[in-house]
Amino acid sequence: MINLSDISFAYPGGGVPVLDKVNLELHQGERVGLIGPNGSGKTTLLHIIMGLLKPSSGNIEIFGKNVREEKDFRDVRQRIGLLFQDADDQLFNPTVLEDVAFGPLNLGKPQDEAMEIAQKTLEFLGLTGLGERVTYKLSGGEKRLVSFATVLAMEPEVLLLDEPTTGLDEATEKRIVDILKGLDFAYIFVSHDIDLLMETTHRVGYMIDGKVSIDEEGVPHTHVHVHEHGRHTHKHALSWPHKKG
What we know:
The protein is α/β, with parallel strands linked by helices.
């Protein structure tokens, strides 16, 4: 579904590349976690998949097609849902229902159908009573759940989740984890919490300064290092060079 080959990227004036020949594949039904320190390129990688940033080199193939130009990514954004790290970046309509209906409307759904999809999505997430609430007055946890609803309402084939549980209380985090477990989507889940990734993904890639070690088959090249970890409860002790930003 997603195939990134030798992706490199540096922000203007940044000097050192944020991503340096990174490779990543996501297959149908897969759930992949990405973990690494701040500044290691996790969010940047998600934005490159969505066409929000353009790599300096490398190849992006999504749903079997090479994508390079803005026009190529229009279809991608209709089929892949990105949950931003900050819920306020995702919510901009006066009410919750309008925010959740915006995506279906933008996909060309009639008003009545878009509102019906929005209502059903809110019901699915247990947010029925929030429909007429003013978005900016919601709590942090409510905003996160509503922003999740805006993504799900677009009925995507793939989800990109950028630290969806950061800053949430335990109950709201568990709610999101339970929702993720019940979804039938392939997704890439970025988090700083290795145990959370172990619970919600099939394999985890470790990113450090835009580089990752070897793939799951042991091929010695710069690649997202992914390992199968099963479903048994366990903990990992990780260490990496500290990097600000």
